[in-house]
Give the backbone structure.
Amino acid sequence: MNASSTDYQQLRFDYARHADQGAAEPARHPVVVVGAGPVGLALAIDLAQQGVPVVLLDNDCTLSTGSRAICFAKRTLEVFDRLGCGERMVAKGVSWSVGKVFFQGELVYRFDLQAQRGHARPAFINLQQYYVEGYLAERACELPLIDIRWKNKVVGIEQNADHALLTIDTPDGPYALRADHVAACDGSRSTVRQLIGQETQGRVFRDRFLIADVKMKLDHPAERWFWFDPAFHPNQSVLLHKQPDGVWRIDFQLGWDADPEEEKKPHRIIPRVKALLASSDMRNAEFELAWASVYTFACLRMPRFRVGRVLFAGDAAHGVSPFGARGANSGVQDAENLAWKLAHVAQGTAPDALLDTYADEREFAADENIRHSSRATDFITPKSEISLLFRNAVLSLARHHPFARMLVNSGRLSVPAVLHASALNTPDADGFTGCVPLGSVAPDAPVQHPDGSSDWLLHHLSGGFTALVYGDAAGHLETMLRQAAAGTVAIKIVSVAPPGTTCTQAQLLDLEGMVAERYGMQPGSVVLMRPDQHVCARWHAPRPEAVRAALCRALALAPATTPELA
């Protein structure tokens, strides 16, 4: 396939009969992932890269159509880097950082979401979901440990003490599979969730929005524009985003009484687009309608993301409104949290209890996302006269008073959850102030190789548990760390020397001092990171028994089950 000319919306994947379908007894696999959307594909790739064979089932043979999820945050791009396709995403996507908020036709204020200096990836890119799925699918096809089976629909599931038994329907009839664990990534209408009798709970918002993908030549910067009560769409809200290929995404608030089927028709959409363009003095821009959909949004989640041997991720587990780009981004973060834990359990280096921490951590993150999403939706679509008066007063004040801008909420954009209370963290015994909190995703920083070539820190913080060591004379620390980790899990050591020094033992140079600043490090400090790049322990003067205990804790291992230190 010529990827540069692929029409991912028209792409069809061939169904193929598998040897498992003719087996006398159901074949058994370590992990079966259900759903080949962005979350399922990301999870399968991550598992395969960690040496775990994966069966990936999808009930269809196509990728998504229309823009759907379009806004992918820096953290998601960093995950895609680890999965081997981040560069493609960024090269194709539209990078942006500036947002503008309008009220009744006037610019209220602008904001800049550009990440702080010293990160490889931009704050956000806009990229249609079908490109994301296409690039992930092509990456998955490169990995021999991933067995993708299209037109394989799960129609039954039975949980047993040591496995789950799946019944799968295909064009050749049904067959059965056994799986040590099942990852349900099959979307908001999850068949797996229904089969095991689980439901999502929460709040459905009584409003509707029209999404229109419009292809046009428009001299307009790559900015996020949000209108409250504009003259071209009175008493409602409108959102505009630029996407690749000259496609513009426009979201029009419709109200609860709108007829979804009628509003999707071109004769209803085209006048709305023309009115928007005329309001911006772009009335002569030529355009054509590429895709449209009407959605009702909700903030929901399952009570528990783990039900026996089935683990739920992405929209199958939780749902939010689209304001803030929290759906796909949080789903990919579910996948990276689950992948390393499933890998360690499947490979026998961690107990089953580690999977319970997936549910604990990602339920916490889902609750955080739901709170932010609900607040944004309540501000954008007030449901009472008092709420409307408050919102409009805030918008009016925000034109001239910075304090009011803090109250404007047009969808505060997604950032990763800080897992402050994770059971896998080792509380700080040393003082770490003015730096990332324990439980945070590892921040990036510019570094330099001994030969003078430039690089980024996050490129080195992948491939399992990683110990970041600070100081050029790090040889004795590396020896101690390897001895401390012996008998538990392989640990990667990355040593960074302070700026202005000559690397003699360290692998990298802290080019601008950002590694020390962001991680709160000094010569002799060590920061331990999980395979998903969350900071789980750190010391200024590490002792081997403390390092061993932290590794055990991060794997949900009881310290007594590990070998004694020499």
Observations:
- Residues 446-561 form a domain with the Glutaredoxin fold (CATH 3.40.30.120).
